[in-house]
Amino acid sequence: MTLVLGYTLATAWLALCAWSIGYTVWLVVYRLWFHPIAKFPGSFWARTTFWYEFYYEWIKPGKYYARIKEMHEQYGPIIRVTPDEIHISDPLFYHELFVPFNVRRTNAYTRYAQGTGFEDIFAIIHTHEGHKVIRDPVEKLYGKIATHEPLVLGCTKNFRARLDQERDTGKLINLSHACLSLAIDVATTVTFQAPSNYLEEPTFNENLFNIQKSGLMHVPLFAHLPTPLRMIVVPAIQVLASRIPELKEWDEKTRRQTFRTELQEPTMKLQGRASIWKRANFASRIGQLIQQNGIFHVSHTIETIITQLAMDKSQLQKLQDELAQFWAEKPDKVTSWYALRELPYLTACIHEGLRLGAGSMKRSPREYPDDEIHYQGWVIPKGTPFSMTTYYMHMDPTVFPNPDTFNPDRWLGADPNGLMHKYLLPFGKGSRACAGQNIAWMQMYFAISQVYQPGGPAIELFESDESDIRLAHGYVFPQPRLDSPGVRIYVHDP
Ligand SMILES: *[C@@H]1O[C@H](CO)[C@@H](O)[C@H](O)[C@H]1NC(C)=O
C-alpha cells in the first residue's frame, strides 16, 4: 500500500516538474519567436521574463529606469522592456504619442496598476471611455481658476504661517513632510467641500507619510506576485493596513468628506460599474487616489526649490529682490497667479524645480486599441503597451547642460529652438496628463512667493544637502536615496 502511494506521489511530483519545465520552455519560445512583438530588440531577459523588471524594481531597488536607459544605449531607440511592452526613447516623438482625447483612443496598461492597491478603480478607468467619465468633470472643476485661486492661496498662507510659528523655536522640521502636508491640504481643498487642515498637525503628519512611503516601496513586490497569490495577499495587506492608526485616520478623514458637486455624479457613475463587493467606500477611495496622485510631484518640487535656495545665497537673493520689488510696486497683484507668472526669476525657479523634482522616472505605459504605431520602420501592433520616460528628457545634457545642477538662469532668455519647453514634461501630456496641473502651478507660485516675500522666514538647512532631494529611485512616485533622513530645516527670523 505504502509502496503504491509512494509511487503515485513520485509520479505526481515528476509530472508537476515536467509540466513546469515544459510550460517555461514553451513560454520562452513563444516570447522569443511567436509573440506579436517578438521581433523587437532588447536584452534576452527583458524579452523573456517579467522577473527581470522585478529584479531591478525590487531587489536593486527602483532602478529599472536606469537599466532601461542602458538598454537603449545598447539596442537603439525602440526596445522591448518586458515580454509585453515596448519602450521608446526619442523625446520629440513623445508629442506624437501622448495625444488629447479626441485625437486617438488611448487606454492605460492594467498591469501598471498592480500592487498599488487601487487596482479595482483602475480596472474601470483604464479604458479611454471609463477614464473620460471621471476625467472630464475633474478637469472642469480644477479649471475654475477664479474659484480655486483664493483656496490654494489660503493653504499656502497656512504653510507660511506654520513656518513662521516655528521661527527660532529650535525645532527641526522635516521639510518633506511640511511640503506634503501643504500639498494634501491643497488637493483636498479643491476636491472636497471642506479642507483637511493637515498643515495644523504638530509633526506635519510624520507617521502617516513615513508609512505611506514604505508602502510605496513595496509596490513592485505586490505588482509581481503571480495573480492568484496577489488576489489573496493584496486584500490581506489592505485589512492589516486599515488597522494602523495613522492610515485608519487618513481613511476615515476621506470618508467623512463630501466631494465638490461637480464630482458627485461621475463618481456614482463609476461606482455603478464596480463589481458588487468593491462598491463600499468607492467614493472615498477615488478621493484617496486623487490625493495620492496629486501630492508627491508638487511637494517634491517645492521641497527641491526651498532646499536649493537655502544652499545658494545668490539665487535666493535674486528671487527675494524680484519679489520685494513686485510687493512694493503691485501690492494688489500679489494674490494673483496670472500676475505672479510674469515674474521671470520666480518662474525660472519653478521650472527648474519641476525639471529636477517632478521627473517621472517610471515609464507611463499606454495602449492604442485601434491604431498601430509606426516608428523608424517598426510597426507596434494595436493594443501593445508602449511607454516613454520623461525623466530622460529632463536630464538630457544636450538641452540642459549640467542637468544635475539647479540653475534657474538657464531658463532666462535663451531657449533658441524651443526645445527646453518641449523636453519639460512634469505633468505628462495628452489624454492622461495630470488633471490637476493648474492647481499644481498655482500652488507652486503661491507657496514660493509666500515664503520668500519681504519679511519671510530665513531657512537654514540642518545636515541636509542636494543628495537628500536628488531623485534616485524610480518608484511610482520617485524618491531620493533611501538612507536619506530627509531635508531638515530650522526656521529663523530674517
Ligand atoms: C523626513 O521625510 C522623509 C520623506 O517622507 C523621510 O524619508 C524621512 O525619514 C523623514 N525624516 C525624519 C527625521 O522623520
UniProtKB/TrEMBL annotation:
The keyword Iron applies. GO terms for molecular function: heme binding; iron ion binding; monooxygenase activity; oxidoreductase activity, acting on paired donors, with incorporation or reduction of molecular oxygen. GO terms for biological process: mycotoxin biosynthetic process. SUPFAM superfamilies: Cytochrome P450. Pfam families: p450. The chain crosses the membrane at residues 12-33. Its cofactor is heme. InterPro entries: Cyt_P450, Cyt_P450_CS, Cyt_P450_E_grp-IV, Cyt_P450_sf, Cytochrome_P450_monoxygenase. The keyword Membrane applies. Keywords: Heme, Iron, Membrane, Metal-binding, Monooxygenase, Oxidoreductase, Transmembrane, Transmembrane helix. Heme binds at C434. Belongs to the cytochrome P450 family. This is Cytochrome P450. It comes from Penicillium chermesinum.
